[in-house]
Amino acid sequence: MRPALVVHGGAWDIPGVAVDACRAGCRRALEAGHRVLDAGGAAMDAVEAAIVVLEEDPVFDAGFGSHLNLRGRVQLDAILMEGETLNAGAVAAVERVRNPIRLARRVLEASRHVLLVGEGAEEFAREQGMPLCRPEELVTESQRAAWQVCREAGHDSAAHFAREHGTVGAVAIDVAGRIAAGTSTGGTCCKYPGRVGDSPLIGCGCYADNEAGGAASTGWGEAIMKIVMAKTAIDWLREGHEPQEVADRAIRLLRERVEGTGGLILVDRQGRIGASFSTPHMAHGYRNANGEFVVFP
Ligand code: ASP
User: Which end of the chain is more exposed for a tag (fewer CB within 10 A), N or C?
Assistant: First the structure.
């Protein structure tokens, strides 16, 4: 079958100055993922490759350049799931891992667990021979300055609202019909230390099942968790609903049932794509039937 990939760089109110950078970042991620898929590679490799590009890009709230938490530190969460066996690997609240999606993959492939957090996750990274960075290496000057503004405003929600969303995610189906999904985030701006949102939780931040499709979420994690958004969407795909209809319905449920805002990207088992969001923008993109990348900020 023809492979497909969709990526997102977060559902939020993207300021005008960041639009080009978001668009360019999504395009680079699509290129990286499609290089893998076009060479006959696995969906999981494509998702990992796309997310590494987004983690490395400081315009997104994942990896380098993530939002700082209340104490001024970056704490990262990520998950990778593959739809053949329903195996998933995830990490949360890690401070010394530059590409948490790579560590999530190690958890999936080399541990008996699904989710490792904090120091334990970093110890596992060390055991796996992954390089650890200093926490300061994940902090950009602009995020430090933004954190300072929030702090001076007493962490009033209005001060950091516009910077709350920028998580990244990817969903792919490969030539063999294998589906994978992944999500990586620095979480919400000025979150409480140790706070974990939906992103690294199976069924919330992402879900993948070869029998139905794959999904990746973004938005207000505390609300997304309550409706287990990614798995809920996959259940609707399994019932035979169209991907776009499913994405819209999930975002409607998020708003109407738990007053949440956010976005969702989807691929069904035929490689059809859906994307929906209730925020002013969601940076996202995919390749259309003509082989061109379509990228929306
Ligand atoms: N869902 C993420 C979280 O709550 C944030 C985001 O998607 O921007 O941590």
Answer: N
158 Cβ contact list (under 8 Å, min separation 6): none
C-alpha 11/C-alpha 247 separation (Å) is 13
**How many angstroms does the Cα of residue 223 sit away from the middle of ligand 1?**
10
CA of 124 relative to ligand 1 center, distance in Å: 24
Active site residue 261: no
Q: What is the pTM of this model?
A: 0.97
Work out the pLDDT band at 55, boundaries 50, 70, 90: very high
Closest CA to 229 of 260, 246, 205: 205
Query: Are 291 and 30 within 8 A, CB to CB?
Result: no
Among residues 156, 154, 225, the alpha carbon closest in space to that of 187 is found at 225
Helix (H) or strand (E) holding 116: strand 115-117
